[in-house]
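Thread: "does anyone have the structure for this chain?"

Original post by V.I.:
We have the sequence but no experimental structure in hand. Need at least a predicted one for the grant figures.
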Amino acid sequence: MGTVVDRVDQLYLYDNAVCEWVERAPLQTTAGKLEVVFATPDVAFATMRSVLEDVAIDSASTSRVPLPFASVSRTDVTFDPARFTGNQNYWRKLGLSADGNSVRRSKHPRPVKIKYAIEVWAANRDTLNRWQAWTPGEFASHEMLREIDFSSIDAVWKKKAIPFIDEGVVDTSQLEAEDGQNRILRATQSITLNAWLFSGIEYVPIVRKIQIDLHDVVYPAVLGVDAETVWANADEYPLLDKIFVSKGATP
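Reply from O.Q.:
Generated one for you, tokens below.
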């Protein structure tokens, strides 16, 4: 039996890739670039406020979250049968362990679809218009390729281009502002990643010598010799063809 070692949390690689792409959006902000947090819409402002408090000298300056900013949340991870092949059922070798006593192997990556919701929070319509005008240019035929580095979890893949699929933008702004507050505008961009999830690594010990126990059918004793010695001295074992080999294979 081999020893199975779980992969590190690999979903964060995809999460970070989506957040880094959103940060590239050419939206005007006081910070110079669009601030992005990984959070569901219900806690987006609280999470953004917490991030600002960690970096702000005066925490009072974070009493109101500056707009615009974006929040990213992972909404679904599902198996993708369209990209599944029989290869996913077989092992692949990943080389030797550091001590050289084990072989590292893993099942082939499993195809999955990972869905994300990107919320762009803004104070004016011009910001949302800029976002909606920028995203179509990013997706050629509703798809773009983003390179992700998998070297931390897979020695074979290292870097691979992952398709990002555009699922469209929906205006999810508040219908009206709360009492005493300005109305917050919001656009929700949905994307799907044609991703892969890796199996855990299994360490299989290398067998460098096989000990073969031979049982003499005439004298029931275990002969502590290896197969080569037995067959080299076959004349000493007249009933050799009736000897049972409990392990290994005959020469």
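V.I.: this helps a lot. The first strand starts at residue 3 and ends at 5.
O.Q.: and Residues 214-245 form one domain.
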